[in-house]
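Protocol step 4 of 6: structure prediction from sequence.
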Amino acid sequence: MSIIKIDMNSHEFQAELEKTVVFTDKVNKQFGWVYNPQAEVNEGVQMGLARNKMMYGKRFCPCFMVEVVDEKPRSVEDRICPCKPAIEKEIPEDGVCHCGIYCTPEYAQNKKIEMGMEEAVHTHSRGLTQEEAIVLLNEKELDSDELVSLLEARELGMVDFKLVDVREHMEWQMGHIKGADKLVPTSSFFAALEDAKLNRDENIILYCHVGSRSAHCARILSDMGYTKIGNLSYGIVSYGGEIER
């Protein structure tokens, strides 16, 4: 099974995307939610929902791995947008759904304030020493600044690792972390993994949109005997480094 490629510019996809935007508009209106103030989050989720509708016939949440069992697609916790965990737990408790597109008005307002503060106070931290880089590389969960620092350390030859994107081919085309080495989409995970020829004993860092698919893939790789797996906790949407488009 090869990597599934959907042409973002095709009439078929653009028509499905338009339907999906209408759908998410209706969801917000129905539940009294609003969109995330980070427009790229909403766009990414809407495109993922449209992609899954074309691939699987349902708008599975794009931040969770979809598996086909007995020719029937299913996702973790049966996450079909708007999913039950978001309605019953995530948005009432956290103010935002896991994929990040649906928010309470209060969460969205606070997020706007937070985004303004981050832009005002953001500064680059000093570079890592080799010892610090080695220690950090063996952490199971990494945040944006840590991955930026590790990529800088790799450029300087202090550490070595593979950065692997487990999103779909279309998402990779929309934008991926500069320095990413491999694309191993969850929709064709095992075949793409074989093609990627990753060493079971090398350091591998995974990332996806918000960190869910990559965390799931990290568990799969660990079960397969890969020993040094790291995960970008909050995905590419949290990443402050350079993105290639």
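Step 5 (inspection) to follow. The mean pLDDT is 91.
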